[in-house]
Amino acid sequence: MTLAPGDRLGSYEIVERAGAGGMGAVYKAYQAALGRYVAIKILPPQTAGDPTFTERFAAEAKAIGKLRHPNIVTAFDFAQQGDMAYLVSDFIDGGTLAEQIGAPLPLDYAIGVLTPVASALDYAHARGVVHRDVKPQNVLMTHDGAPVLTDFGLAKIVGPGSGVTQAGTLMGTAEYMAPECASGAEAAGPAADQYALALIAYEMLVGRHPFPADNPLSALMAHVNKPVPIPSELGVTLPPGVEAALLRGLAKRPEQRFARCGDLARALAGSIAPVMAPPTAPAQPAGTASGPAAPPPATAMASPSALVRPPDSTPPVSRPAAAATAPPPRPLPAAPPWWRRKRVLLLPALLVVLLVVGSLRERGLVAAIAGRGTAAPTPTAVNPGGAPSERRTPAPSTRAPTAAPTATRAATAPPTGTPLPIPTTTPLAMPAADQGNTPATATVIQPGTVYSGTIAPPTDVDWYRFAVSGAQRITVELRADTPGLAVALFAASTGTTGGGTLLAEETDTGGGARIAYDAPGPGTYALRIRAAREITSDYRFTVLVR
Predict the structure, then answer these.
(1) Residue 142 and residue 111 in contact, taking contact as beta carbons nearer than 8 Å
(2) DSSP code of residue 376
(3) CB 42 within 8 Å of CB 56
(4) Of 122, 133, 263, 508, which one is the catalytic site residue?
(5) What's residue 163's pLDDT?
(6) What angle do CA 507, 510, 514 make, to 5 degrees?
(7) Which regions in the chain score pLDDT beneath 70?
(8) Percent of the chain residues topping a pLDDT of 90
(9) How far is the C-alpha of 319 from the C-alpha of 302, rounded, in Å?
(10) Closest by alpha carbon to 273, among 245, 231, 300?
């Protein structure tokens, strides 16, 4: 049945047809009693011949009508007029997320959209409501840029034969259906909604669907059998943590995905590690509303990007207060393999071996130079403590002094525990993985060279030193394999072993960390690299002086 402008459904006057989809036609209507515009969705006509529809419609409509979340479209009314069943909800005319997908979107913008949607799904799952048809077309966008999820539970209300899929009793859209549902092994649960949300995230960040298909059956088979294309293999560069989070959210088995949709959003944002022991089971499916615990409210998962702002309204205060600050405990991860359990003991042992080898190499080098008699006579040695000390040197050889290979090398310091400074004429491009752990043992670096290192364990701290020759701009750039490392710049104090005065500190949250500082004149500066949270990570950095 087609409605025309001016037709009435109950107290609503039809204004115009706003759209149509597998779940039915949508009309913009006016409710004169409250002076507002609403959206009316007319359910497909085949529901009229379904003998179980009325009971299913009433039960599901009550559950959906109780949802109050700033990122879920508010349902005002569910009614039937003759053979026509319809739903009345907020009218949102800012378009859909589907209109924005087609090319890779900025990571900050994508996270700003996905985080409120994940919050809405967790809120509904905690109340026993599963969406069953999460897709970009069901994410409406307000004029302020806030995402609002619509069509909650309609796949179950409409039921089999709605035209949404062509696969027997499957409920939902084939292109966004989880493998366990596509194969018919399980009914749709919270993990299926998370899989669809991960598909949306993949489309936003990569610019294409991971499983493009010409028909619903091909799409279903791809979800079950095909591996997810790695974004980097498609020419799309994403931070390692983001790529890992996408692949986990798109895992074929539901127990291998995140415990909640919010965990997926936080992993994409870099605030939790994307690779962790899989949860023992996803949240409870619909029909057990009293079982699952409520997820954190929408404000606890606010978008990190200012591009998207959720509406000012908040969920009702009837939600448990504890849920706002303490999510349900996650199951303990499986015991790590033996080699990982022994890593804490192996690292100190490896460090001791490296120190011993380095000491032997230094002594061997000094002995070799003394044995050849090629070192230029030097009356004093450079003492890091500040005071020079006398030392004997072998007599100069008969060779011309200008040919001495060690003429530019600083004399070795007495054995006081302070390592020999690295010659500035040959900067190391790949320092040892565990750098100096105190300012006094900082590794000397040369500006303009890319260096790499490792922070492990999380309490590890790496120090570096470099010098500038005048009033110049110092630029420090750090990139970590795992977001969460921080780099700090100090003005080193002459004649002390401390780091000096802290000038700036930045943390790599996924896109790298950068410090820019204008040096007032010649001086020595120190860098400190450490973990800002409990992580271990490889890193690369460079210092530019101009």
Answers:
(1) no
(2) P
(3) no
(4) 133
(5) 37
(6) 45
(7) 1, 21-23, 45-60, 153-171, 185, 271-348, 356-436, 493-499
(8) 40
(9) 18
(10) 245
- DSSP letters for 241-266: HHHHHHHHHT-SSGGGS-SSHHHHHH
At 116, give phi and psi (nearest 5°): -65, -35
> For 62-85, how does the pLDDT look when each residue is reduced to its tens digit (9 = 90+)?
777 788 999 999 888 888 887 788
> CA 513, CA 241: separation in Å to the nearest integer?
16
Q: Do the strands 75-81 and 84-90 form a parallel or antiparallel pair, or are they unpaired?
A: antiparallel
**End-to-end CA distance of the chain, in Å?**
73
The reply to whether 77 belongs to the active site is: no
Structure tokens given for 213: 């298909």
Please state, in angstroms and rounded to a whole number, the distance separating the CA atoms of residues 246 and 357. Answer: 43
Place of tokens 């090398």: 409
Cα separations (Å) of 395 from 71, 370, 401? Answer: 83, 10, 12
Beta pairing class for 8-9 and 12-21: antiparallel
Beta carbons within 8 Å of 534's beta carbon, 6+ residues apart? 458
Q: Are 69 and 119 in contact (CB under 8 A)?
A: yes
Which tokens hold the place of 509?
């949250």
The token pair that represents 325 in the structure block: 């600050």
